[in-house]
Amino acid sequence: MIKHRFTLPLQSKGNVGKSTQASLQIFWMNARNVSWQAYDLDSDNRTLSRAIPEAKLVLLSEEPEADFLKIFRTIPERSVTVLDPQAHFFRVLLHSMDFAHFLDWGAQSGIRTTVLLFPVDDLSVMDELAEIVEKFGDKVDYLVIKNRAKAPKTRMFDGSQLEKELAALGAATLEIPALLSDTRNYLSLLEVELQQPLNLLEIISDKKIKMDLFHRLILEDWVKKMFEQYDRLAGYLLPDEEAKRVMEKWKKPPEENKEFSLQRRGAKINLSNLQ
After folding, report:
1. Helix, strand or coil for residue 149?
2. Among 24, 112, 125, 261, which is 20 to 30 Å from 272 by CA?
């Protein structure tokens, strides 16, 4: 039984949306009353800890393996642990997991890791993702993140051998749709006006925050779509009992495809008035 979930983005390329995904996952977990902890390991940008003050900023020492071991030991303290590592610590993180026999220890402790993969049309990145899948096999769960704002197309991944291997391992896909550019620009302006990082849930729920109505509605719809995906993928992001609770209460049944029959032209007009 999975008692704790560890979500881990693994790749050396930055600017693919790792912090965005981590923030959205945390907003969703707050809305679903899931206990969590998060570690921001990007001391340069501090994106996650600026947006979510509860996320702990960790300044890695000259011996980063020891720092990772300290983080690993805290995983049983919460239902979910979110890690947002700096891209260039990719190899150090892998080494630390091997050094600590992390997956073996996690299996004995009821911890299941979900590796987050961000495919982009870059040969070195795709080789790196293939290496990760070959290394971990079925010892972890996989969630493929398609961030359309950063990678509108994923031609190297779609229909690839890697995609087939991930499908055989039970991988799921989360798509982050690109938010309207005008709305993104408006949110940047709002962040400057408020002089603080934006908490998306706060700004759409707190009516005291003055926000253009059109942009508020667009953002609400975008967040709703993301939460619906997270509810559907709760089994990849939460431990068993929490996932069951969330999916039973929040997961929506798949919408039926409405078939529209082709009708004869003019079938619904009143012909008698034209005679």
Report:
1. coil
2. 261
Q: Is 95 exposed, middle or buried (0-12, 13-18, 19+ CB in 10 A)?
A: middle
Q: What is the DSSP letter of 261?
A: P
Q: How many CA atoms lie within 13 A of 36 on its CB side?
A: 29
User: What are the phi and psi torsion angles at 159 (to 5°)?
Assistant: 75, 10
- Average pLDDT over every residue of 224-248: 96
Spatial CA neighbour of 149 closest among 222, 210, 80, 93: 222
Query: Any residues with CB less than 8 A from the CB of 54 and at least 6 apart, and which?
Result: 38
Task: Read off the pLDDT of residues 1-38 as tens digits, 9 standing for 90 and up.
Answer: 999 999 999 988 777 889 889 999 999 999 999 999 99
Q: Which residue ranges form the domains of the chain, and what is each CATH number? A: 4-248 (3.40.50.300)
For residues 268 and 260, give the distance between their C-alpha atoms in angstroms, rounded to a whole number. 15
C-alpha to C-alpha distance for 113 and 61, rounded to whole angstroms: 24
Q: What tokens were used for 109? A: 């402790």
Backbone angles phi, psi at 226, to 5 degrees: -65, -45
